[in-house]
Amino acid sequence: MQPLLMVVALFALVLGTVVPFIVRAHNMMPNLISVHGKVIDDQIVLTMYITGVIFSLAQIALAWMIWKYQSKGQKATYVHGNALVEWASIFGSGVLFVGLNLMGQGVWADMHLKDEPKGSTEIEVNGQQYKWYYRYPGNDGKFGERSPSLVDDTSQNYLGVDFENDKYAKDDVVEGTLRVPYGRDIVVLIRSRDVIHSFFVRELRVKQDAVPGLEIKIPFKIDHDGMLMFKLAGVAASTLDAKDDSGVNAVKAQFEEHGIAVDTSKAKIKVIETPKKRWELSTVEVSHYDAKKEWTVRYSIEEEIGELKVYKTTYESPCAELCGNGHYTMRGEMEVLSPEEYDAWAKKASEDAKSYH
Amino acid sequence: MSVAHEVDEEHEVHVHQEPTQFIWKYVFSTDHKVIGKQYYMLAVVAVVIGLTLSLMFRWHLATYDPQHMFLSPDTYLQVLTMHGTILVFMVLTTAPLGGFGNYFLPIQIGAVDMAFPRLNMLSFWLTLLSFITLLAAFFVPGGAPVSGWTGYPPLSAINSTTEGMGWGQTLWVGSIAIFCLASLVGAINFIVTTLDLRARGMTLLRMPLPCWAWFVTAVLALLSFAVLFAGGLLLILDRHLGTSFYIPAGVIFGAKELNHKGGSPLLYQHLFWFFGHPEVYIAILPGMGIVSHILATFSRKPIFGYKAMVYAIIAIGGIGFFVWGHHMFQSGMSPYVAVAFSLLTMTIGVPSAIKTFNWLGTLWMGNITCNSAMLFALGFVSLFVSGGISGIFLGQNAVDIYFHDTYFVVAHFHLIMGVAAMFSIAAGTYFWFPKMYGRFMNESLGKVHFWLTFVGVYSVFIPMHLMGLWGHPRRYSGMENAFLSNPFIPAMHNMVTAAAFVAVLAQLIFICNFFYSMFKGPVAPENPWNCTSLEWITTSPPKFDNFGGVEPVVNHDPYEYSVPGASKDYIMQTDPPEAAPAHAVGHD
Amino acid sequence: MPLATTEPRPQLKPALGAGGPGSGAPGRGGDGRGPEDAGGHGRRVPRRAYYTGILVGLAPILMLFAALASSYIVRQGITHEKDWIDLPLPGLIWVNTLLLVSSSVALELARRSLKRQALPGFTAWWKIGTLLGLGFVAGQIGIWWQLREQGVYFSDNPSHSFFYLLTIAHALHVLGGMVALLYVWRGSANMKLVDGRCLRVDLSSVYWHFMDFIWLFLLGLFLIGR
């Protein structure tokens, strides 16, 4: 009885984990929007396959031993071990684990060990209990001086930027939203003014602690192609977040703006008419709100069926290091813009800031 | 046995009679068996408190409603912090080492007691003091700390950071410091006892595997707790004497700059994890030893690769000191150092793989009886594999970028350090209960306990891996959040909570079984499991001096089961040399 | 009272020779008790267990100072904030070093006398060693007092905090050893000797020499990297 139960339990365990983790390995995580994240995702999937095999073999072997050698009055075989098995497990596991690890070192080196690419857009990410503030260097491209003694929350100088005396500071923009252009190299300079926080954007595959007293640079680049499709569909993040028909209707309206006629049903949006644009879609099917809050657009151009992801433009950046009671409320927002939109916004914001100071 | 002030230059001779008064016999006892039980009972109390706390925050997460929160955000973090601290220190460190180690190490190596029984007693009472100090944190103004069991500064170093960071945090650090002293004293005792008090014939490579595990664990404790003590000391000074070991200059609280001069928050993390990583092995190594012992016994086979098992225990302990940086990949530590830590971390997989192979090898061609002790030991092997596998993700610095501080980490360390260690404690309890109390525990209840726990814990922690993959951050008390209000996540929290209730409430069966059997269980003979090690040659429970005045002499390896040509299917370690047929002398 | 010694013995087991005969000290880590009073049952504890015990017990003390010292070195090495102000080392520190080292020498001389069965020599050297040790503690207090006079406080700079912390931690351990030395002093008339050695003498002097070692290590730490 017990051996049978054990076998059932272990097989159920293997099925229950292998199915979600291995079969759906590529779809487990929130969609990817960064370039380096591809390597991380591939490494995770590869690790998942390798460990999935080891895991299944070990659990099934355990089940098999329990079943096959359950006591039926037989005499156990007197064996003390086998040197070959020991050495094989040493070399096998050693080569496997260390080799797997070495494969992941490339992306680590790209993120942490290399100089950031020239001409990167620099943005300062500042954590404090329980809010993120972002600073942009403004039109002069230089960050102004800052000092803790200048911090003054009442006049909203959360970062202690020296707006008074430093000419580089006058056009610096401090905002509560992180705006980044896609297709460009970006470097975030991560800092904290009180306790340790952690800057985390799931879709970027970026996570880095913000440590008071340190400034830590993390480079990334947002994938260009995925965002283009979004631009085409013109779906705003806010509408995607709605869970009822209003969201679907808003999406429909936006598709129509782009000359795509949409037929709504509860779960799907069907595009019927062929728009006369460069990205011509003869039919577009938008699947309904799903777990990852992204939308898949199925399209066909002259019979060729394909699939494009429609991305939100706004992403959450939850604090990932316990920073106090309000930890769970400390969510930043990252908005992805096209390079042109970003430049226009940055120019105007910087001018506004300069005239204000 | 020589009992007198005789002239003996090799030994210090001490004559002490068994105390007869209750207080000296059961409370302030220097008998390692009583101290072992005291440690065990402390762990039972702690586990009840710690698991109750976990049910509280599980309930909070399952019923989350921003308008009517079951726990306020600060209470949530307090409960979380205390859950972690109580279970890591007061359960996982005390029960396997202080409990079983104290009780069975001297007996298994044929000693009458620990080398320094009064230090042993001191160790227990300091642990109790530490536990009381920790619990007191609930009852001071501001309540228990909210900084997690890791207590990272500056959050934990500055009183004004947040609600609940006053005396609670100070008591927390104080409790940890006392615990360090207790563990150091205990570790010295374990090491000296193992090195110098073994019976005649009990060579190091004839010790049962639990003894090896306890010994290596004690070495880990000896070297790591002093460093944690140093870390805690600096934290206390930063909190109360205005020093700046951890608090950097220019830190701003309450919209004004604090007067601290250039400390390093990462310094604490290094000191903490230099302890914290070996601590994982302090929790799990004794479990490995106990499980090896039980697997061999109920497979009726010698342990597969005894020497490889010993070397693997030593290797895990040794490498365990050089991998602490894998807790800090995203902390701002030098990324070059992270690469080295990551590679070293992967090498720990090698001895772990050896252990797994050898456990399977022990079962292979055996004669397996699935009683409660064996079921828990088998469950341990399964959990050890599962928990170890997710470690391969987290040990890779690049992959850890995504997984760090998500539920994936929570699931990983609970499986390997929490649940697997708990399974080894349960296995050890079912196995040794007849020796400790002279009675059997109820087998049917034991099996119910096993199945509810086994299914329960997997249902709790496998889904948590999934939540980690989705990017659910740890230590979030609320879910008013675009990502977290995704309907899949509350559903998952509900499921995990339901499973957690099953798994935790199943422990009530165990506790009832434990106390009922202590008085009413069927009486156990000396050696109910036909096991070979020394604890089974004496009465159940053992007499005050363990062996009734007989000094055991060891003639055999520890796991001589099913020896061909022998008269019975096991050879006790103390059986005369001729018990084993000449052709079947143990060899690896 | 004469030595309660026993017949000369061949030799002690090599196990104890290996790590150097030791001394126990009260303090944490050490056994802290005279060898005679191990509790327990009617049983024999091998003498080498006490030597093993003291050596094992020194390990966490070493780890404690190693942890604090590496923190010191790491903090000193953080150069991006120019806020490490070296502390003016008072000259008294050299006097103290001399006191501590000579107290160790005196204890060794005492042990040699014991080996030769010269009890008066033992007692005299032991007392000298103990007094020199007390002198060291007094000298350390003097150093803290001097620094305070100069306006060097515990919390005004990480460098100063570390100096006070390390010296105070060391002094506390020395005081623990001092209790052991005084205990031996008090019981010096009534010792159990085996082969010219007394357990508590050996244990407490090993501990004391170890305190020398820690002190020299700390001194080197304070001197390097200024």
In short:
The complex is a heterotrimer of chains A (357), B (588) and C (226). By secondary structure, chain B is mostly helical. Chain B contains 16 helices and 3 strands.
Compute the separation of the termini of chain A in Å: 79 Å
Beta percentage of chain B is: under 5%
Low-confidence stretches of chain B: 1-7
Tell me the count of domains of chain B.
1
Oligomer: heterotrimer
Write down the overall mean pLDDT of chain A.
78
Please give the CATH class of the largest domain in chain A: Mainly Beta
Radius of gyration of chain A: 27 Å
| Apparent shape of chain B | globular
Count of separate DSSP helical elements of chain B: 16
Under CATH, the topology of the largest domain in chain A can be stated as: Immunoglobulin-like
Overall average residue pLDDT of chain B: 91
Note the gap between the termini of chain B: 35 Å
Describe this structure in words.
The complex is a heterotrimer of chains A (357), B (588) and C (226). Chain A contains eight helices and 15 strands. In chain A, strand 6 and strand 7 form a beta hairpin. In chain A, strands 3-2-1-5-8 form a five-stranded mixed beta sheet. In chain A, strands 9-10-11-12-13 form a five-stranded antiparallel beta sheet, with helices on one face. Chain A has a three-stranded mixed beta sheet with strand order 4-15-14. By secondary structure, chain A is an alpha+beta fold. In chain A, helix 1 packs antiparallel against helix 2. Chain B has one domain: Cytochrome c oxidase-like, subunit I domain (Cytochrome C Oxidase, Chain A), CATH 1.20.210. Helix content of chain B is 60%, strand content 1%. In chain B, a hairpin with a 2-residue loop joins strand 2 and strand 3. In chain B, helix 4 packs parallel to helix 6 and helix 12 runs antiparallel to helix 14. The longest helix of chain B is centred in the middle third of the chain and has 35 residues. The N terminus of chain B is likely disordered. By secondary structure, chain C is mainly alpha-helical. Chain C is built from six helices and three strands; from the N terminus they run E-H-E-H-H-H-H-E-H. Chain C has a two-stranded parallel ribbon with strand order 1-3. In chain C, helix 2 packs parallel to helix 6. Chain C is elongated. The chains are: A alpha+beta (357), B mainly alpha (588), C mainly alpha (226). Chains in contact: A-B, B-C. At the A-B interface, helix 1, helix 2, helix 3, helix 4 and strand 7 of A face helix 3, strand 2, strand 3, helix 8 and helix 9 of B. Strand 1 of chain B pairs antiparallel with strand 2 of chain C.
